[in-house]
Amino acid sequence: MKLLNTVRATLTxxxxxxxxxxxxxxxxxxxxGDFQATGHIISVEGTTRWMAAVQEATNGEVKFEHFPSQQxxxxxxxxxxxxxxxxxxxxxxxxxxxxxxxxxxxxxxxGFYSTAQQGTEALQTMLKDGPLRDEFLAAGVTxxxxxxxxxxxxxxxxxxxxxxxxxxxxxxxxxSTQAMTARALGAVGISIPGPEVYTAVERGRLDxxxxxxxxxxxxxxxxxxxxxxxxxxxxxxxxxxxxxxxxFDGLSADVQAKMIELGGEAALHVAMAQDxxxxxLLTQWKADGIDTYSFTDAELVEIRDNLIxxxxxxxxxxxSDSAAEVLDxxxxxxxx
Length: 336
Fold this sequence. Notes:
Elements lengths: L1 H16 L10 E6 L7 H17 L4 E6 L10 H6 L5 E5 L22 H13 L2 H8 L2 E8 L4 E4 L13 E4 L1 H10 L3 E4 L2 H9 L5 E4 L4 H4 L7 E3 L8 E7 H6 L2 H35 L3 E3 L3 H22 L4 H12 L2
Parallel strand pairs: 1-2, 1-3, 6-7, 6-8, 9-11
Antiparallel strand pairs: 3-10, 4-10, 5-8, 5-9
């Protein structure tokens, strides 16, 4: 009887960790947090789509309890919430966790990828093996998949062209890497979480915002600006779905593989969905009276000249032996 009780206790513990075989009746419910609203394109075409696919593919063995819109933790506290057991998984905005994931901030550098699909394919490659993946593992979480937002554009209450137009402006940036971009153009980079940007612009706390166009409707920023650029490249932003490593390692190999496989599909899907949405958004905003403009060739040259030093400054600031390697790999992958 003592042996039987021991076996039962062991099986109960394994089931709780998800160590049962794929297709077994035991269920694992993961508490998953993110800071996007459920109506945001990132959630609709990415997070919720992936969760539903995983639950279906595992026959309900893996389920999710979703905490969107910062319900469980603020955007900058998502990683801590996972490590502290408040959450089991989170869609992390890597630039919000630059202290723990400094090398992953390479995606924030300006002038690299031109579409979300291009940047996502590069990121997925770098998360499979190497320094970017190692950073997540060292932070106690396992990256399942990652994708990027389209290149950031500038949204403002006046037309911003050459760097002289940016001088002294308070501009919302995502993390320290993008703040370097703002400084290189003569502006001041201010880090404010996405959900708080609308009010900051409306009340005059911000003069302009660096933001990816597909994310604008989710935050209704088109209601508080009058000028939006369409062909700039002011850095990027990466999202990475991460699960606390001890929990992920406890899942069966089949479930792990299915999560990663479906994650790769979700990453490419949400990237393409964002790219496809851009032209429609620009057309709508123009019809609404917003100045949706393209930088002239001369303006782009002057902007790019000012931004050249940002990448080299990033390598110096990171102070990692892997920084130059990461930058070179990122440059190579995004040029393909």
